[in-house]
Predict the structure.
Amino acid sequence: MKVTGLETFEMWGAPRNWVFVKLVTDEGLHGWGEGTLEGREQTVRTAIHELGEYLIGKDPTAVEHHWQAMFRHGFWRGGVVLNTALAALDQAMWDLRGKAAGLPVYRLLGGPTRDRIRLYTHVGIYDPGQMIEDAQRDLEAGFTAVKTGAWAGDTGLAEPQAIAAFAERVARLREVVGPDVDILIDNHGRSRPSTAVRLMKALEPYRLFWFEEPTQPDDLEGLRALRQAGATMDLAAGERLYSKWDFRPLLEQRLVDVIQPDLCHAGGITECKKIAAMAEAYYIQVAPHSPQGPVSTAAAAHLAMAIPNFQILEYVHSQPWRDRVLKEPWPVKAGHLVVPERPGLGVELDVDAIAASPPRPVGVPRGAWFADGSVADV
């Protein structure tokens, strides 16, 4: 089997545009991958085509060999754009490898370590006014874990006001969901270390499942400050790390309890399987970052099925686009994703549905400002 061509596609999936790649072969099989990177869709599509030229005429089932060549032979390597393009192609090669073997990808990765994938949803992410309504919707649907936060609008408040508002919202959410539903908090790396410590202390009464990206992804000393302050909740980070080398100091210094590699940004299935194995050696759990489209969800779910230290998977409803673009939608039952026993990634996309949902301006926050008009982190 040889790769004969590739196509990229872009569609609106709410609250971001999804970018897909389709690898075509001379045996009639094709493989799907996803390289969604909000706000940089055209850049990534170009990078996918540039990297993908290497695959033309080659056997796509030699995934590791091709991954190494595409990563190492360009001289300029790594980073979110190149590794997102590489991730999309890697997913598509794994999809082809599974289809050629007649097996789901997770069985090629070592076989099942569990029979279903626990999910968490977004409630009021970016918009605290939607938090309670979203939580009630997801509780009725059977979900047992919800995540909120990432409120760019709070950057205009003075620090004591922002912390008080944050804690008040989480208190209200805990009251609504009750004691048995897990609450996850995403800080989007906005806080200075001292601010992150004060926010962590303010949130302690609400029994959080984790505190995500309390500081910027390159601020390992900031994470250490939270550890030294006596964190009583799990710390999570890693969605903005893109390789095993990026994760190494985070793991070696044991600064977090949970890592969140993104199957669309951290080199795909091939690289994230290695990152998960590294984390296993430090007794750190893996919760893939996955707020993108259905191919990203599928890739993350196959990895989750095959690794022993998987914890929970991010899931954004993105309806009706998610079900429209999938020819066979995946079932979600009682807050868990059931991975179908289909060859490859188990997803087939409807190109007519993609064409019927053209890209739109990205719906995630694209700017944040302090009260004096200076730039804040989103």
Observations:
- The chain has two domains: 3-102, 107-345.
- The longest helix spans residues 79-101.
- The chain has a mean pLDDT of 97.
- The domain at 107-345 is CATH 3.20.20.120 (TIM Barrel).
